[in-house]
Amino acid sequence: MTSQGSPFEYAPAPESRSIVDIKPSYGLFVDGAFVDGHGGSFKTISPATEEVLAEVAEADQADVDAAVRAARKAYDKVWSRMPGRERAKYLYRIARIIQERARELAVLESLDNGKPIKESRDVDIPTVAAHFFYYAGWADKLEHSGFGSTPLGVAGQVIPWNFPLLMLAWKIAPALACGNTVVLKPAETTPLTALLFAEICQQADLPPGVVNIVTGAGATGQALVAHPDVDKIAFTGSTEVGKAIARTVAGTSKRVTLELGGKAANIVFDDAPIDQAVEGIVDGIFFNQGHVCCAGSRLLVQESVYDELLERLKRRMSTLRMGDPLDKNTDIGAINSGEQLKRIRELSEVGDAEGAERWEVACDLPTQGFWFPPTIFTGVSQAHRIAREEIFGPVLSVLTFRTPAEAVEKANNTPYGLSAGVWTEKGSRILAMADRLRAGVVWANTFNKFDPTSPFGGFKESGYGREGGRQGLEGYLR
Ligand code: TAP
What we know:
Helix content is 38%, strand content 16%. The protein is of the alpha/beta class. The protein is globular and about 65 Å long.
């Protein structure tokens, strides 16, 4: 649907879904084959239409045991003994198959997750392939990484629903490059691209057991995290579950990396190029429906440009096109689940009750599926819950500041520390701000840019450990 203020009408340009062959049901991927699970099954739906896409096996404790056994056997007998240059060939092969099947993966990701096809096609899947290419390059050079060259063993990996295949790539590519084997649990609402990835592992002739995929809900993740024969846990998701995982592994020899939530400040100074900053603000909070751990969900605007910036931001938001994720013109897709929509609505209502002023793009929402219009709250103070808690949706909280020192103080006034953005024409100010912002990533005059060569991770309650770059090898080597 177009926003009511949009000056243009576009003809629908839907990407065909015929390229994907979605099976009615999927088993677990264990020891190189799809097998039946013992924990029953669950349905995965398209969040845009609520259509059931497939029935997926739910892994119970016995299934997780079998997957960990397969990973251990593959680690001992094959993968840890294979020279890095040979492991690299498998990773390159996987990367190339991902490129060859990119359209299929993008359509499936958009169907299962609700994200616009132009994002899955142009951002998610190319970055997935880039991660496998990048870490393939490291596999025979580990002794130069500075982190040792011995793998840890079996890695248990638990990922969220916001970037299903990209989070899989962030986890699996470095683990395999370093000689570890993996058991990965995708999120309950987005299992399908991980299962297609399992088929890609078969197509690449990856030795059985090197990658195992166990689908299921939180209990499956819990069984994997608590499993005594897992050497490393890598988790991306909520801070609450991250803390529970840290408690579970405390006192064991397991290594852990946690990539948790965020409440990033996107800081606009009065000398910033305003139109560019508006694009960066829109990209920062409305990319992927705001389901982004490093989303720029707190906008800090210097008071002198507040009125002008807000007016231009609202005008730009009115041109965003929300609707069918498979339509190539769509900017904003569906919210990933009914549960997440409920959380976004609840926190937005808290914003109303706390006295902030809500403005949203006027548009007609479909009656089927899960939708929330791009929204901004002005008149937000630091004490408001919408300024402190991660909403994980297309909702921006706007605050103001007068001096750089005040901007730093407000930006750092959060238990999180994952990312931040700075908009100014002064290079010296960018460097000074980056120095003082307690955030793992600081973007300058841009936002939400990802590259496999660049480390990513948080301070404080945003977690610990880094993914990406040379630093991403540290969590998988001793
Ligand atoms: P989580 O509940 O943290 O889920 C992340 C992953 O952990 C999923 O695969 C989940 O399985 C699994 N899991 C759940 N409970 C577990 C447990 N006790 N032990 C091990 N694994 C467990 O996040 P969510 O439900 O997807 O979203 C909730 C909130 O988390 C969101 O509103 C958002 O604020 C935040 N979130 C943050 C991020 C990032 S990247 N920082 C990503 C997603 C969500 P199921 O999917 O089956 O529950």
